[in-house]
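User: Show me a protein chain along with its predicted structure.
Assistant: Here is one chain, sequence first, then structure tokens.
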Amino acid sequence: MAHNLSQCRLLVQKAAAAGAKALFLPEASDYIAPSASETVSLVQPASSSPFVLGLQESARNYRLPINVGIHEPTQGGKKVKNTLLWIDEDGEIKHRYQKLHLFDVDIPGGPTLQESNSVEKGTKLVPPFTTAVGNVGMLICFDPPPPFSMQLRFPEPSIALRRQGAHIITYPSAFIVPTGKAHWSTLLRARAIETQTYVIAAAQVGSHNEKRTSYGHSMLVSPWGEVMAELSGEKKDEPEIAVAEIDLEGLEKIRKEMPLLRRTDVYPEV
């Protein structure tokens, strides 16, 4: 975790130097463990986590809001929460979202995977909140082994956040390589197009341990579905940032000229 904190702090410095108004970091930026039991054993409360405290200090020092995915303990300590924090420019945790969709499957003659054995599912969406870059709606994209990804494959949460006023939807991730190559860009562009929001997907990249390698390709997609910025899928000597401009007037123009009038008289409103 100390190494991850140093990498994230370097990203804060780079973002501040580039004039960014907010920094979006990946899911599980604190650590990715090789097993569920190790994931639970490593977790710490945000209030005492050196990783979180270090980022809060960096946010204060650089006056830069930070969106970051971490693990948090559950009551009783037998599971973890996969959460996303919004740390404001004063270093205060202002918003917290807990991942909704878990991967549980029992395939006859195949693997049995029960993510719910070690991760506690969230129970609500966090309404979009106002920031210097627009109204942010927080979601998490998680890709548990073997290659199945969850939250990003559900359009309903992003559609609900758009209805509640989101200009930006986040999908911080730790996508594995096979599904990353097949689906990553397609899913992100689809979510941006169908919600007419900016999609920001900060992604882990490279090998974490002998069991896990992340696809990378952090991406920012416009409400028109254009890839405005994308990082590589190769781990570099230093962590990288991508910077792009959020044009809220352009967003409203797209929504006005391509109105999405849903037939909620025929099907339920999300």
